[in-house]
Amino acid sequence: MSRTPEQPTLTPRLCFNQTQLRDFLRISRTAVDDTISQNLNALQTPGAKPFDPSSTAERQPRPIGSRRAIDPVACDHFKEKVLFPSWQMRSDVLNYCAGVATSPDPDDPDQVLRESEDARARERLVDERLDPYSARYFPREARTESLASLIRNERMVEQIIRARTWGLVGERCENEGIEAEKALDEWRRRKAQSWNPLS
């Protein structure tokens, strides 16, 4: 079974280094979600049923789902120890970086450059009769705006990946017909109760 990567230290530097942020999300998705079929296959114990020589006497129809169901205990263990923690780790990183994207950024290295470009654009004389393109000005995007756009995209990707993964898990394990986010919320609730000594 794949090992999920360690959660990186949550700092604004991680969020603004979009390459590092994307790499963490990609590696985490690759370890669990992109290889979900292999991870589920690894839960099956080969030879759990003893070989029956009479089974070769006639052709056996393929099961309707074409995949054998997995032991419910192994499924629950996989969901509790691998799948949900991986999803939660990515949610934590995305939520933290979304907070960074909506916070003021006093350390923005391009802020002075953007302000000078904006001032120059305001001082320009625009005569669209002489130059129809003279009114064009595309302000430079702040790194918080760029980060917010990246987080929106990554959240949409996360929804798609989780739905696909949960569908494949549902084919092999019992999901009791609940959606991926509800199952994750239920896991969070159970985890919070187990950490709370007063409950």
Label the overall shape: elongated
State the total count of DSSP E strands: 0
Number of helices in the DSSP assignment? 7
Q: What separation lies between the terminal Cα atoms?
A: 33 Å
Strand fraction equals under 5%
Mean pLDDT: 79
What are the secondary-structure elements, in order, as H or E?
A: HHHHHHH
Unreliably modeled segments: none
Helix proportion: 55-70%
Find the structural class using helix and strand composition.
Answer: mainly alpha
Radius of gyration: 25 Å
What is the makeup of the main sheet?
none
Protein name: Caffeine-induced death protein Cid2
Family: Belongs to the MIX23 family.
GO cellular component, one term: mitochondrial intermembrane space
Organism: Zasmidium cellare ATCC 36951
3D architecture notes:
Belongs to the MIX23 family. Residues 42-66 are annotated as: Disordered. This is Caffeine-induced death protein Cid2. This protein is mainly alpha-helical and 199 residues long. It has a domain at 74-103 and 142-199. It has 7 helices and no strands. The model has no long low-confidence stretch (mean pLDDT 79).
Brief summary:
With 199 residues, this protein is mainly α.
Which properties best describe this structure?
single chain, 199 residues, mainly alpha, 7 helices, 57% helix, Caffeine-induced death protein Cid2, MIX23
Produce the secondary structure layout.
Blueprint: H1 12-16, H2 18-31, H3 36-41, H4 72-101, H5 111-123, H6 143-172, H7 180-195
Helix pairs in contact: 4-6
